[in-house]
Amino acid sequence: MNHELQLITKNQFGELNYCNGCDCYSLVFSNFIFKFTVDEFETFQNYINDIPMSFWNNSEMMKNKKRRIPIHTKQKNLTLVFNGEEFTKLKALVNGVTKKDEFLSLLDIDYPLHLN
Ligand SMILES: [Zn+2]
User: Fold this and answer.
1) Residue ranges with CB less than 5 Å from ion ligand 1
2) What is the helix (H) or strand (E) element at residue 55, kind and residue range?
3) How far is the CA of 42 from the centre of ligand 1 (A)?
4) pTM value?
5) Please, are residues 53 and 82 in contact by the beta-carbon 8 Å criterion?
6) pLDDT tens per residue, range 48-79
7) What residue segments make up the domains of the chain, in order of their start?
């Protein structure tokens, strides 16, 4: 079986690859490597896109923390924490965006939105 990795996205923090042989994704970010099946990757992508970055950045609880945005892992005693820039880059990688900051969810916009 051919396990050549196909590069999907890359930025200064890491890269996202897909392996045809395993039908899986591998996300390298800083000093972490995440491995996902296709289903797991989609779940992770949805999870990342639903994280309200501005909520955590403004949260009292996280006020004195350098890295304020938590990402929970399947391992209950392990939570990864990111600052705004790192989180934005992670999000760009998982969304297949190489150019910076193109995907912001509505929740990340700092002013209230009224959708009528
Ligand atoms: Zn493989």
Assistant:
1) 3, 19, 21-22
2) helix 53-57
3) 18
4) 0.78
5) no
6) 999 988 888 888 877 888 899 999 998 999 99
7) 5-108
